[in-house]
Amino acid sequence: MKRVLKPSSALIGFLMFLLIWQVLAWIIRQPIMPSPVEVLPLFLTSIFGDLGIHFLASTGRVLAAIGVAVVTAVPIGLGLGQLPKLDRIFAPLIAIVYPIPKIVLLPVIYVLIGITDVSKIFLIALIIFFQILVVVRDEAANLHPELILSVRSLGAGRRALFRYVYFPASLPAVLTALRVSVGTAIAVLFIAEQSLTTYGLGYYIVVETYQVLRYPEMYTGIFAMSLLGLALYLVIYHLELKVYRYQDQK
Amino acid sequence: MIEIKNLTFAYSGRSPIFEGFNWRVGRGETWSVIGPSGCGKTTLLYLLAGLRRPLSGNILIDDVALRGPRPRSGLVLQDHGLLPWATVRENARLGLTIWEFYGSDGKHAPSDIQLNKAQADQRVDHWLEKLGMNHLQDQYPARLSRGQRQRTAIARTLVMEPDLLLLDEPFSALDAPTREDLENVIINLHRESNLTYIIVTHDIEVAVVMGPKILALSEGFNQNPHILENECAGIIGNHNHTGFHHKCEELRKLLGKLT
User: How far is B238 from chain A (nearest CA, A)?
Assistant: First the structure.
């Protein structure tokens, strides 16, 4: 956690990205590969219009899913980590379910929950849920019993233990799990938004632009979705750096 | 101050460590508890701290039966139990932070004293300075030596102003000068405030230095307490002192009989 992305290197990275894009556009010379010179101005105007609404719809779904996943996975993970007997019962089940690509459950979820936003959020939350569940469980299991006992001797009951021990102990792991799963979450969002909705970047990219051959507009959607992934990644990364401060002192 | 009546305790599935065990500790007394590993000396401390429940029998502290951790008892453990993500100051303040979290409810914190933030900070300042940790208060535990960590753990307990201090192997894994330093800290604390303390150790010399009264526990099963009066307590750093040497021998023989 020592590699900090400096604004200067972020800018250099972005310029290199644009350069390669431009070179590809020159080489390919087809409508499917428009130049960034065409796409970026279009993006800057449409993000304050129609595209902005799709962007907000997708962002809202991802954030809601992250919220649901954290609120459910953290307490369950803590419980499993601190109660080895319970963990022994559920560990095989979690080990089997954890690697299943949850996207395959999309049709089932649509039928059972319906074609509302809830089913999309549920699917993404499910992916993040297992990532967080597993790391929080392992962190909680690794806490020294002596640490818990000495904090209890200072008067801490269950609520104070959660607030002052379990929560700060698992926070770094939760953030790391979020950072590595947010990419998958957005990929799944892209697929889930392609049908049964009228707002969202997945819908915009596939239905509103790709299927009607509006390629430059399609790229503004792709660009927006990339920005969403990048922004979430950087926000989580920044929080991680703050939380990990004490480890840098080692 | 402490009265243990007819205590029986066993970990589930094992033979009992204590059975019908009785022991009294008067207010202001200071005890060493010694015995081979596995004799239940740490268990005894956890029982006194209210972190374990007896299978039967009673532990009375100030004539009140113990049910869970008691706000006025302080516990210091061998591996310090510091929060690695909190600074020395935040660690030392933890007990008071938890007190503020619950309020003076009598269960998690003393009910007869109200505590405001300024008073709490003042207490932390006082004990960090007294234990010589104030210049390190913004460091994280990983950066500290073992002795400094133990000082932080002791400060964290003392900010709670306990009337009973329970110490589990507090000086093990410390080098001799650091150990003698901390022995002094605890003994002076007792002299200044008549604090009752019980120190668990496997080290015969530590037991003789720290305990005017020594409780020796036997391997396996404890019924009657074996108590040694020790007039050599408080002799720090002079282990060639004749009386001290004899007392160590006496304790060694007693322990030999118990195993």
Answer: 33
With contacts defined as CB-CB under 8 Å, which chain A residues touch B153? 150
Residue A250 lies in a domain: no
CATH topology of domain B1-72+163-259: Rossmann fold (3.40.50)
Question: Are B211 and B30 contacting, i.e. CB atoms less than 8 angstroms apart?
Answer: yes
Reported pTM: 0.82
- The model's confidence at residue B111, banded by pLDDT at 50, 70 and 90, is confident
Indicate if ipTM > 0.90: no
A–B: how many Cβ contacts below 8 A? Answer: 84
Question: pLDDT digit string (tens) for A207-250?
Answer: 999 999 999 999 999 999 999 999 999 999 989 888 876 665 44
Break chain B into its structural domains and give their ranges: 1-72+163-259, 82-161
Domain carrying residue A108: 52-244
Domain of A166, CATH number, reads 1.10.3720.10
User: Which chain A residue is nearest to residue B161, measuring alpha carbons?
Assistant: A154
Q: Which residues of B touch A160 (CB under 8 A)?
A: 98, 101-102, 108
- The sheet with strand B226-229 has its strands ordered as B73-76, B164-168, B196-201, B30-34, B213-216, B226-229
Interatomic CA distance for residues B69 and A157, integer angstroms: 9
